[in-house]
Amino acid sequence: MYKRLFKDSFAYSLSSALSHLIALVLLPFFSSILTTAEYGVSDILQAFNTIVRMTVSLEIYQALARYYIDAKDSDIKKEYASTALFFTIAVYLIFLMASLIFSNPISYFLLQSHEWTIIYRVQSVAIALYSIIYLLQLQSRYDFRTFDFVASSLTYALTSSAVAALCIIVLRTGIVGLYIGQICGALLGIIVALRNGWKNYALAFSISRLKEMLSFSVPLIPSSLGFFITGYIDRFAIQRLLSISAVGVYGISFKFASITSLLLTGFASALNPLVYKNYRDEDTPRKISVITNAFIGVAAIIILGFFLFSSEILLIFTDPKFYGAKDVMPILIISSFLSNMVILSPGLYIAKKTKIIAILNILIAGLNTSFNFLLIPYFGILGAAFANVTSSLIKMSLYFIFSYKYYPIPFDIRKIRSMILITATTIIIGILIYKLPLRNILIILFKIFLFIFASIININIFIGLKNLRTQIKKIFKKTETGC
To answer: Any alpha helices (H) in 380-464, and if so which ranges?
Structure first.
């Protein structure tokens, strides 16, 4: 399980890393050309796109993931995959027609202005195409066709980024260029995905398979809506209580926070199918515990880096109009890790307790909404960040508590507590250092020292330096043998 996990994690993370690296390279150019309002529009539409993906296809993605792996016969697997694909194409054609017909009232409702109607229409096409490629990529993941997933992902990322750069930087189209790029990337990505995976589909549509999948996925829609509200209510609250430009500044923070998905996306993409496949093995809970230690150790190092160097990161990669994101960014990164740690407590999903999942997500959504509308009027976008991280902490805690009942995992609380304590102490020292009468260069050097020192301690806690040296020696021996 470990070997397959890290192999697939590396492959999935590599494709995600490349797309994020391209976005990071383009960010200084985009942020100097696009306004904070355009970034705000982009964030609001991204939130809308998320709710569309959750509701239009009735969450059939999740049902495919659950039933496809359990199916033993290849013909049955084809029935599930083909039925899900044709259903997804049909419902998104309906969505696209309705979205274009009612684009004026919908865009005004979302963005409080008719100025952005054309942009809304273009992104509607983009989201319909992306939802199809998303299903194709998901199916390749759960069929353990890692290469096919990476190929379609890279095609989408490279094409969409290249076309978006051409439109925004050269042609000066504004934010609409981003969605033109996504349309081109999705079209090519779909072609690559179907070319590599056509053998896994057939000209078949099974009503019985569709009913079976929807019986699992439809109860998840309220849960998903709760998940959506938890993740995106902050943008809508900021728009209503502050401005669309404030959403843009907050959104820049989220773009950096999404860099954590370099770890999370690849990790979850590899872990979920392996857990579903091996959860009956007696040793799987212990393995998940070991994986959790490594996950938290890496997360602690990433969080520490963003806390210590948020000012320098924004200075390098963005325009001065976005420097207000400095204090928000590290808090959102903590929230991202906390929220995604539910993948390490799969008990509710294994037991198919969709009603409990729905109740938990709706509860967290209500709390997050309340926190945002209470804190934003007093603390601005920083209040939204505090609301987000508090809700994520509560969510993670509840998922772990309820999942333990159905699939107990022997977590190493001592190691986890030690890593959190080391990271928190280092962050506090990093904040207090600004109170000292030191030059900026000395402060930066001291922060680098703190980062390296705390990282070494965390690595020693979750893997052990002796074990790390042993693994490095093995790698070098294999390299020398290969030569």
So the answer is: 381-406, 413-432, 440-462
CA atoms within a 13 Å half-sphere pointing along the CA-CB vector of 42: 22
With 0.85 as the threshold, say if the pTM is over it: no
DSSP per position, 263-316? HHHHHHHHHHHHHHHHTTSTTHHHHHHHHHHHHHHHHHHHHHHHHHHHHHHHHH
pLDDT tens for each residue of 320-340: 888 888 889 889 888 888 887
User: Tokens 């150790």 — which residue?
Assistant: 297
Left (φ > 0), alpha (ψ -120 to 50) or beta: where does 58 sit? left
Q: Evaluate whether 149 touches 137 at the Cβ level (below 8 Å).
A: yes
Q: CB–CB of 446/426 below 8 Å? A: no
Are the beta carbons of 135 and 84 closer than 8 angstroms? yes
The enclosing H or E element of 356 equals: helix 354-379
Higher pLDDT: 145 or 327? It is: 327
Please provide the average confidence, as pLDDT, over all residues in the chain: 83
Q: Cα(first)–Cα(last) distance of the chain, in Å? A: 28
Tens-digit pLDDT profile for residues 236-260: 999 999 999 999 999 888 888 776 6
Task: Please give the distance of CA 256 from its chain centroid, rounded to a whole number.
Answer: 12
